[in-house]
Structure formats: structure tokens, C-alpha cells
């Protein structure tokens, strides 16, 4: 992971649509949160190898709307570095919590977030069915529900 730089995207940066769409979809929904959130790019040797979008959802809460690492760069600690950056940024902005949602069949992502300390706090049943009009499959499992996860940045009251 040498030479990794995580920086806020500028208006002149090309939007890394393949990464955004790999982690989420459909495109019109991504465009909405891109307008409201902050996009951060992970670069290595001048190449965008990861990205994330953070958005304030409540006065004390920021959410990771989208986080993705290029397939060719997975397993190199880039996702972990971006998650650490998200935690730092949210805390600097006064957040008490950092939230994320992921699919019930997103096994790699579920393990990733839980290793970092996120806990499952809710289920949005049939979220992906409503979003796409049907259930799809991921890891041989029907992708239906959004698992809501949170990480407390300060001790809850």
C-alpha cells in the first residue's frame, strides 16, 4: 500500500463510475448522493484505485454512502485506509456515529465492517427488491435486505 493518497475529489476529477456502480446502483440514486455528499478518492501512482462518498445524515451522524476498491487492488489495505479516513473525517465534523448499509448477502463487506467495529443495528427488509424490482443473487444468496450498521465514535449516552 505504499504511496497511497486519499484526497477529496475536486470538480475537475472524472467521476469513477465503474467503482461507484460496482459498490452501488442505480446511477440516478448515486448522482443524488454525490450532489449532497463528499467524494474522496484513493490514488496510487496517480491512478484512482478506490473511492468513497460520505454524507451527513443527522446532526451527529455521518454515513458511508459508497465505498469501493478496484478489483485489481483489493486485499492491499486500501479499503481499511479509506474506512479509517471516514472515521477521522466524521469525528472531525463532530459526529458521534458513523453508519453504513450493506446487503444481506455481501459477506465480504459484512466481515470487513464488523472487523472494524461496526455493529448491525437494523434491517431494511426487501430494500433491494424495492430498489430494483426483484431480488438478485450475490454469493449464491438472494440479495434482498439492507443491513444497517453503525460505529460509535464517542460512547453513547
TrEMBL record:
The keyword Acyltransferase applies. Keywords: Acyltransferase, Transferase. It comes from the Bacteria. InterPro entries: Acyl_CoA_acyltransferase, Bact_Acetyltransf, GNAT_dom. The lineage of its organism: Bacteria, Pseudomonadati, Pseudomonadota, Betaproteobacteria, Burkholderiales. PROSITE patterns: GNAT. Signal peptide: none annotated. Pfam families: Acetyltransf_1 (PF00583). Residues 4-154 form the N-acetyltransferase domain. One of its GO terms (molecular function) is acyltransferase activity, transferring groups other than amino-acyl groups. This is GNAT family N-acetyltransferase.
Amino acid at each position: 500500500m505504499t504511496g497511497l493518497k486519499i484526497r477529496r475529489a475536486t470538480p475537475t476529477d472524472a467521476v469513477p463510475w465503474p467503482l461507484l456502480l460496482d459498490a452501488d446502483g442505480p446511477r440516478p440514486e448515486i448522482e443524488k448522493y454525490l450532489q449532497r455528499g463528499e467524494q474522496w478518492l484513493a490514488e496510487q501512482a496517480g491512478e484512482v484505485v478506490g473511492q468513497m462518498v460520505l454524507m451527513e445524515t443527522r446532526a451527529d451522524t455521518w454515513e458511508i454512502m459508497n465505498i469501493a476498491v478496484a478489483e485489481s487492488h483489493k486485499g492491499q489495505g486500501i479499503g481499511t485506509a479509506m474506512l479509517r479516513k471516514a472515521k477521522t473525517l466524521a469525528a472531525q465534523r463532530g459526529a458521534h456515529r458513523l453508519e453504513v448499509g450493506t446487503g444481506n448477502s455481501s459477506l465480504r463487506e459484512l466481515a470487513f465492517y464488523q472487523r472494524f467495529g461496526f455493529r448491525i443495528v437494523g434491517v431494511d427488509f426487501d430494500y433491494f427488491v424495492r430498489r430494483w424490482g426483484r431480488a438478485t443473487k450475490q454469493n449464491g444468496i438472494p440479495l434482498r435486505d439492507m443491513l444497517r450498521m453503525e460505529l460509535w465514535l464517542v460512547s453513547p449516552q
